[in-house]
Specification:
heterodimer; A: alpha/beta; Nitrilase/N-carbamoyl-D-aminoacid amidohydrolase; seven-stranded mixed sheet; 10 helices; 35% helix; B: alpha/beta; 13-stranded mixed sheet; two-stranded antiparallel sheet
Chain lengths: 302, 355
């Protein structure tokens, strides 16, 4: 195949970690992000880490210092104030998507509806319009304790030649979520997350890496690298693919340890399609052996 | 090997005579002698804490079932001497007995490139047909061997999986023997590799958990560990130790090998025991590393590995202690343990095509 033919099926993607970005003002942030994106070769899709909108809101002064551990309660008591913060965030990133002419997948941001607070990820298309949003569907025990609610949808979005799904925050560690996206036809998954505590590459491999291998999609995992809400976030961001089509069969196209500003890689969709024709993992599923039983057991958690 | 009519039946009777139970039992009683007082580490006084051993076998053909019994005895004896109460064997742990068929090596070599069909004297024979022919003989040999070994040493043995005829089907079936030598349960492989489908093997229809004196155990087969659904269903059914016999026909790569049992253990919060068949035989090169895995939180290095062999192509045995109390404690308080039944009910019925 000529390079011209290949051109149409290669997409450059980036995981932005927040490390090294200037966040003191909205303009400083916009400017430092633009420089970073230019330096990284203008990826067509940027994925931001979990909780990044909250970090941005605090650093830019959109919101005064609050106790983030009681965030859902605070939002319920101050819906107007928080709505304004989210509005600023959405408007700014619509402009950034348009200026950078790329798709954006934002980090998780608390969002209130019917007195329930969700952790939501927003998506923008290159024209700057909001394409949709995705609520985190599985919660960490701390998030449950804080009063967040689970989302109940896992929609897909068209991003160039890809069908994009989002695994928000803890969803990365729940294989049911990845399977639902894959069986719907996701070719690419964006995974904004924030993992506090000591860096453990194995804990991370048990999440998105495992989801990629058993579903054979691409993934852009963006992990927050910052101190926020009295916690240190130090995980690794990566662009992942099925082992067979990554260097050294590692399952990683690129990975950047704590301290990386952005992790960038080219997705060659033709290679993935070729793999799927040779080794169609999802076609070898055998739901008849477990479908009915699984439902019964899942229902016990209702 | 192409035999028909009375010759075929006569040869089958000869194989059955060679693999008769009384001959095997006499042999095993002789070489095992009277096992020393058991060396069980911590398990005897605490049912939730016990040692497990995962065997890594080098594939070789045996012309006589007694050679097979000797090999299996060697590993059981080794596991017993290490203090293991549960000893786990790999996938396809009866193919060594194809050595009883004259000329099998030559046929396999000649047909290395063919797609699952062995051409003997111009007549194509599928793997399923071969198994239908010798399966009943092999079944008696492996059942007698492992039943006797389990009873002699007083240990549980997951004997690995075997290609067996089951009516008109051929299945890849794993066996668990309890410490009295009784069959505690069997499990048919539920997810098949494309090659096995070409061979005419049939899929298993359910995933089972077996209650034993060591706790609830499950033992799906190889490719079953590629899919989270296998481990999720088994853990929700109560399994806390899930054994996986493997025989991977691919060059060893750390990351490729990591894709099976290890992530499933992390997702489902269970102990995982992997036993591997390695070596080259019948046109295939098998690789793998036997190992014992747990959630990362229960391993000193935080890597989810309790024990793992270093070599992907030599025989050996991985040994580790399992603590079901610690596991239960972790499961109860694990920060990422969460389910969303209404989400699954919304999507999975149509996506799975059955629910």
């Amino acid at each position: 195949m000529s390079s011209f033919e290949l051109k149409g099926v290669i997409m450059k993607v980036a995981a932005i970690t927040a490390h090294g970005l200037e966040l003191n003002t909205a303009n400083a942030y916009r400017s430092s992000l633009k420089n970073l994106v230019k330096f990284k070769g203008h990826p067509g899709l940027l994925v931001f880490p979990g909780l990044f909108p909250c970090l941005l809101a605090r650093q830019t002064g959109w919101i005064r210092e609050i106790n983030w551990s009681v965030m859902p309660e605070w939002i319920k008591n101050n819906p107007e104030a928080w709505f304004k913060v989210v509005e600023n965030y959405l408007a700014l990133h619509g402009e950034i998507a348009r200026e950078l002419d790329c798709y954006l997948v934002g980090g998780t941001v608390p969002e209130i509806e019917d007195n329930r607070v969700f952790l939501t990820v927003h998506l923008w298309e290159p024209g700057g319009n909001l394409m949709g949003r995705q609520r985190q569907t599985h919660l960490h025990s701390l998030e449950k304790k804080q009063g967040y609610s689970r989302g109940e949808e896992l929609p897909l979005f068209s991003v160039k030649e890809h069908t994009l799904g989002v695994l928000a925050g803890s969803d990365g560690w729940h294989p049911e979520a990845g399977r639902i996206l894959a069986l719907q036809g996701a070719s690419l998954v964006a995974a904004p997350a924030a993992l506090p505590g000591k860096f453990n590459c194995w804990l991370q491999a048990a999440g998105i890496w495992a989801q990629v291998q058993q579903n054979q999609f691409w993934a852009v995992e963006s992990q927050l690298c910052a101190t926020f809400g009295e916690k240190n976030y130090n995980a690794e961001s990566a662009v992942l693919g099925p082992c067979e089509i990554t260097p050294g069969q590692t399952g990683y196209l690129e990975r950047g340890g704590p301290g990386s500003r952005a992790v960038v890689a080219d997705l060659r969709e033709e290679e993935r399609q070729d793999l799927l024709s040779r080794y169609p993992l999802l076609q070898l599923l055998n739901p008849r052996a477990y479908g009915g039983c699984l439902r019964e057991y899942y229902d016990t958690f209702s | 090997m192409a035999v028909d009519g009375w010759e075929k039946n006569l040869y089958k009777k000869y194989l059955a005579w060679k693999g008769r139970s009384s001959r095997l039992e006499r042999f095993l009683n002789g070489i095992a002698g009277k096992p020393a007082a058991n060396n069980f580490s911590r398990g005897n006084d605490s049912p939730g804490v016990f040692r497990v051993a995962a065997a890594q076998l080098e594939m070789k053909l045996f012309k006589d079932p007694l050679e097979y019994a000797r090999e299996m005895h060697q590993f059981v004896c080794r596991g017993f001497n290490e203090g293991a109460r549960l000893i786990v064997f790999p996938e396809n742990n009866n193919l060594q007995l194809l050595g009883m068929l004259p000329g099998v090596e030559k046929i396999a070599k000649k047909n290395r490139e063919s797609s699952g069909a062995w051409d003997a004297s111009g007549t194509e024979i599928t793997v399923a047909e071969v198994i239908h022919y010798v399966g009943p003989v092999m079944q008696n040999i492996v059942e007698t061997t492992f039943s006797r070994l389990a009873a002699l040493y007083g240990v549980h043995i997951m004997a690995g999986s075997f290609l067996f005829p089951d009516g008109s089907r051929v299945v890849n079936r794993s066996f668990l023997f309890d410490s009295r030598g009784e069959v505690a349960g069997t499990q048919d492989k539920v997810h098949l590799m494309p090659l096995e489908e070409e061979w005419g093997i049939s899929r298993g229809r359910e995933l089972k958990v077996f209650s034993t004196s060591l706790g609830p155990l499950a033992f799906p087969v190889c490719m079953d560990a590629t899919y989270f659904e296998t481990f999720r269903l088994l853990e929700l059914k109560g399994a806390r130790v899930i054994m996986i016999p493997v025989a991977n026909p691919e060059a060893y790569n750390y990351w490729l090998a990591l894709r099976g049992i290890w992530p499933r253990v992390q997702e489902s919060l269970v102990y995982g025991v992997k036993s591997a068949m390695v070596g080259s035989l019948l046109g295939f090169t098998l690789t793998g590393k036997a190992g014992i895995f747990s959630p990362v939180e229960l391993t000193p290095e935080g890597d989810g590995v309790l024990a793992e062999l270093k070599s992907p192509d030599r025989e050996g045995m991985a040994v580790a202690d399992l603590d079901l109390y610690a596991l239960e404690e972790l499961r109860e308080h694990h920060p990422r343990r969460d389910f969303n039944p209404s989400l699954y009910a919304r999507y999975l019925p149509s996506l799975y095509g059955c629910w």
